[in-house]
Amino acid sequence: MLSLEAALEIILNSVPEIIGTGPGMGMERVALSDSFGRVLAEDVIAEDNLPPFDNSAMDGYAIIAEDTRGAGKDNPRKLRVIAEQPAGKVSAPPVTPGNAVRIMTGAPMPAGADAVVMVEHTESKDGAVFIYCETPVGANVRRSGEDVKPGQLVLKNGERIGPAHMGMLASLGHVQVAVSKKPRVAIITTGDELVDVDERPGPGQIRNGNQYSLLGEALQAGCEVSMLERTRDNKEEIERVLSAAAADSDLVIVCGGVSVGDYDYVKEILAKLGEMRFWKTAIKPGKPLAFGQIGGTPVFGLPGNPVSCMVCFDVYIRPAIRQMSGDESGGLATVTGVVTDDIRHKPVRREFVRAVTIWEDGGYSARPISKHGSGMLSSMVEANSYVVIREDMGDVRKGDQVEIILFRV
Ligand code: AMP
Ligand code: MG
User: Which of 188, 192, 193 to mutate to test the pocket of ligand 1 (most atoms within 8 A of CB)?
Assistant: First the structure.
């Protein structure tokens, strides 16, 4: 049985660094509005200053700082208000000693002014303003380029585009952005007991839940789903669907039929169509995981138990997908925290215990979920995290420090 690290090494050595071959093959340009969640495929270097011009950080009065020297609560300075400068306007005349311009947040600083006094520290009367506090040079002024300067690397190739990235791209005038192509992933579920979600299960039958949890996983990981098929436990059918999937996808997931049951054909078919690298890894849940390739396309055979297949996806397939899409973001967040209950653990396999992790009293605490069978999908609905218990550890005691993977934040 392979350790998680050994299995992951084989997987990452077999999965292409980026889909497609040759320069630019693995990327495409998309509209900025379609870029959310995609992986940036270029460095973004600013050509402009942000902010583009000196502007006011407050609603108030643009003044010459020197004019406020010695001002105080009982000792206001009186200035003449010569103009108003709202955001988007550049019409105010230069400020000269003894004068002020009424200014709004985001409006360009008028020439001559070197500070803004907040409106809260002023009183206006008959075309004049009384300033009740001394204001230093530069106060409440946002300087051109203080956020971003031309030539600055603002976003790096391999970052996942989030809301702030989109805002930055927009602020710098990028209508389009180069992103990695989405890996095209085939999801095949197998099992004579399965019926589609819109069918009524007969005796001994169940609905094909995993098709949808895996669809969700694949979409969340930033994939395009190239095929969504269900097969019977039938060698010819699995072989046909699997070879079609491998020919037309960047990555193939087959769920069910990888264990040691009499109708578990996936390993045999994978070995026949391509190469099977391993089929068992030392994690719990999710031990029966098959990995191989068909004509260069990586193929993952996941256990059919609803929790096991999701854990395998998180542990093994997510890193593969990140590598294929050039995603340097580091994946799911790992934190350290304490457990709120004892967890029994027999050494040998690394266990991923579903838990609800919250931030309380300045630290993370993880409550293991009591219904923890690998068939209990409700535990995955409830959980937001895995407590990781390493293979060499024994039982974990309430209050022990553990590693926690947050998969839903
Ligand atoms: P298998 O890995 O094929 O031996 O299946 C293990 C368990 O997972 C069995 O109880 C199956 O009924 C169940 N299972 C397999 N595939 C699915 C699926 N697509 N959706 C829900 N349960 C499944
Ligand atoms: Mg099965």
Answer: 193
